[in-house]
Specification:
The complex is a heterodimer of chains A (about 525) and B (about 180). In chain A, about 10% of the residues lie in helices and about 35% in strands. Chain A is built from five helices and 32 strands. In chain A, strand 12 and strand 13 (about 245) form a beta hairpin. Chain A is globular, with a radius of gyration of 24 Å. With about 180 residues, chain B is mainly alpha-helical. Chain B has one domain (about 20-100, about 125-175). In chain B, helix 1 packs antiparallel against helix 4 (about 130-150) and helix 3 (about 70-95) packs antiparallel against helix 4 (about 130-150). Classes of the chains: A mainly beta (about 525), B mainly alpha (about 180). Chains A and B meet through helix 1 and helix 4 of A and helix 1, helix 3, helix 4 and helix 5 of B.
């Protein structure tokens, strides 16, 4: 049993590769969190001022549309004081520019993917697909996950803006890499207003404040760190509000309207004020609630939008009120995760215009007036983990792809009303379930009435541990739309499927029918 | 009249040398581990289960063959089979296997519209995590190869170790090229 030195070297070369490569990979996985920025180097909460994201400016008006051009590009921002962080964001800002649209006026946005071909550490190709979340866009403009735009390509998305006033948001939806892309910064708000909403004496202008809340983790050099905890979720140790860690905002002694978006990849929150005082929820994902709801705490899962009015008139100047997070279960806690931001009350003079909350906001909201008796069909959508994959009714997006995009979970008939029973049978995790295209009304949660703050039009629902929620909706529009978990790590692995609204007289548009383009733009193109 | 004994059909001695015994043991251990993993892998995808079964059959077959007929041909077949198993393992724990339920998603990216894009990372699967059981099996397989090489006649060793060296260089090369993450 002897080896020559030469044979030993040759076999040793093979053995070293066989053993070292898997071990090196395993070791690098373990070291992801080792590279995390120490808590001592993170900024102290409430030391940085809140920033507001820029407002997008149309580059042209063409054929009755406001036209925007937004580059998805790499820039380096100072998010943590003293560090530069590489972001891949809309126009290079985190969050991206807010688009403000008027009901009845269409918008066209050219999203240009100017990202590198490969992520430097995660090693994926950053194809993109942009979803305007909350818009009843046509299928080819809806950010269909497989309708991807590669680096170097662009796609024009058309937004109809015919729905009620609401807070929408646009974010990446590219198949299998949404979590990474959103973590890199691809999220922004989109506000649509209408005459009814503007006629109400609600806070407006400087008192109507977008708050995009998210969490991140950073490396020791200040770069975003991404760890999915074995595909259960990405939980950061830094809370960002509009891209600022635990900011503080100076407020005047009056009412403010906050458009709060949970833009986190996986983290859910439960808000309360440090004073224990109530605040008023006036709008949900699909716009104004029929009636305002006053609460002292509320849960907020990913992708949900709540518009909340806080009245600072009751506080003396110099008071600090902290928006707290009670950290719902199954979210990983870190120091200071229990804080979101602070409000410092000043004695600055203020305008008293639009400083009220009407007793009724939108009692005629069509979706909120749907009744179970109108439903023609009840369906069950169950979210579960199966063989290591996250599934919708046992299906993944890979199954949809493998079917040639024909697999659907439901085929509601256009303009009919249905009840969907949404089921999370697990006690180990929660799911934010998002149904594209429609607004729905929550009928009940585990057989009990929905929470007060959920009594408005919704498009995402918090499916907590072992919860079953029934929702009712009218299926307007036609074509294939996605239904998925908005824990983006679950979505990517692969808790996403689709339904198809069918109209016997009008086939739906192919969601893959209008693809991204590359090359130079048309000479007469307004964009 | 009995055929004259040749090198190939000599009767196997009743006493098995220590080196061969160690190889038999290692092949049995590695085959047993793969046998145990069949059900678990089949629950992910039937193809993975079939692959586990095939590797288990090869390794247990090597153990049996080393007992009853340890010819150079059997030993070389064993080295090839175990090397293939190791290479699959390395790929599965680095970049992920390029076949199975995960990579099936690649199908819709190969449309003519997107042809010519230089990145093919979507063809890769997802890397599995390294566990104690599979790491132990890997060590057993590497040791098995080391022993099997020693059982070869001098005349066959050089070609076999050259081939193993080439596989090792290829693995390191793929790692440096970024194909194996």
């Amino acid at each position: 049993m002897q080896y020559t030195r030469r044979d030993a070297l040759k076999v040793g070369l093979f053995g070293s590769a066989a053993l070292a490569l898997p071990l090196q990979r395993a070791a690098s996985g373990l070291s992801v969190l080792d590279d995390r920025m120490p808590s001592s180097n993170l900024p102290k909460p409430f030391t940085l001022p809140l920033r507001l994201p820029p407002v997008a400016v149309p580059v042209a008006t063409h054929d009755g549309e406001d036209c925007y051009r937004i580059a998805i590009k790499e820039t380096r921002l100072e998010i943590l004081p003293g560090f530069r962080t590489t972001v891949w964001a809309y126009d290079g800002t985190v969050p991206g520019p807010t688009i403000i649209a008027r009901q009845g006026r269409r918008a066209k946005v050219r999203f240009i993917n100017q990202l590198p071909l490969r992520h430097p550490t995660l090693k994926y190709t950053p194809w993109t697909s942009v979803h305007l979340h909350g818009s009843a866009s046509l299928p080819s403009d809806d950010g269909y996950a497989s309708d991807i735009t590669y680096p170097g390509e662009y796609k024009d998305y058309r937004y109809p803006n015919f729905q009620h006033a609401r807070t929408l948001w646009y974010h990446d939806h590219g198949v299998h890499h949404t979590a990474e892309n959103v973590n890199m910064g691809q999220a922004a708000q989109y506000h649509m207003y209408d005459a009814h909403e503007r006629s109400l004496p609600l806070p407006q202008g400087a008192y109507d404040v977008p708050l995009t809340i998210s969490d991140r983790m950073f490396t020791k050099t200040g770069e975003f760190l991404f760890d999915t905890n074995d595909n259960s979720g990405m939980y950061g140790d830094v809370i960002l509000v509009n891209g600022v860690p635990w900011p503080v905002m100076k407020v005047q002694r009056r009412k403010y309207r906050f458009r709060i978006l949970n833009g986190s990849v996986s983290r859910a929150y439960e808000y309360s004020l440090s004073t224990g005082d109530p605040f008023t929820v006036i709008a949900t994902d699909g716009g104004l609630m029929p009636y305002p709801q006053t609460v002292t705490r509320m849960r907020h899962i990913m992708a949900e939008r709540y518009e909340v009015v806080i009245d600072f008139a009751r506080y003396r100047p110099g008071t600090r009120i902290v928006l707290q997070n009670r950290n719902p279960k199954n979210n990983i806690a870190y120091p200071n995760i229990d804080k979101i931001m602070a409000f410092d009350v000043t004695d600055e003079p203020f305008s008293s215009a639009n400083n009220e909350i009407p007793a009724a906001l939108d009692p005629d909201c069509p979706v909120m007036n749907l009744q179970p008796s109108q439903s023609v069909k009840t369906r069950r959508i169950e979210l579960r983990r199966q063989h290591g994959l996250w599934t919708v009714n046992g299906h993944t997006w890979d199954d949809v792809v493998a079917s040639g995009f024909t697999l659907t979970e439901a085929k509601p008939v256009r303009d009919t009303v249905e009840i969907w029973e949404l089921v999370n049978g697990s006690g180990g995790w929660q799911h934010p379930l998002h149904i594209h295209l429609i607004d729905f009304k929550l009928l009940d949660r585990n057989g009990r009435p929905p929470f007060a703050y959920e009594r408005g039009p919704k498009d995402v629902v918090y499916l907590g541990e072992n919860e079953t929620v029934r929702v009712i909706a009218r299926f307007e529009g036609v074509g294939k739309y996605m239904i998925h978990c908005h824990n983006l790590v679950h979505e990517d692995h692969d808790m996403m499927s689709q339904f198809e609204v069918v109209d016997p007289n009008a086939p739906g548009e192919d969601p893959l029918g209008r693809r991204a383009r590359n090359g130079s733009f048309e000479p007469d193109d307004p964009l | 009249m009995a055929a004259a004994p040749t090198k190939e059909n000599q009767p196997v001695p009743a006493v098995i040398p220590a080196g061969r015994l160690a190889a038999i043991t290692l092949a049995s251990v590695a085959g047993g581990v793969h046998l145990v993993l069949i059900a678990q892998q089949a629950s992910v995808w039937w193809g993975y289960g079939a692959l586990m079964a095939a590797i288990a059959a090869i390794e247990i077959g090597i153990a049996v063959a080393l007992v009853v007929r340890p010819t150079p041909g059997v030993i070389i077949t064993g080295i090839v089979g175990v090397t293939a198993s190791i290479v699959l393992y390395v790929v599965s724990r680095t970049s992920g296997l390029p076949f199975g339920p995960g990579p099936a998603r690649a199908a819709h990216f190969t449309d003519p519209f997107h042809a010519g894009h230089p990145d093919f990372s979507f063809l890769q699967g997802r890397a599995e995590s390294v566990g104690a059981l599979d790491l132990g099996c890997l060590v057993a397989e590497i040791a098995l190869i080391v022993l099997l090489v020693t059982l070869l006649p001098e005349s066959r060793r050089r070609a076999v170790t050259n081939a193993l060296c080439a596989v090792g260089i290829a693995l390191w090369g793929l790692r440096w090229a970024g194909v194996l993450a």
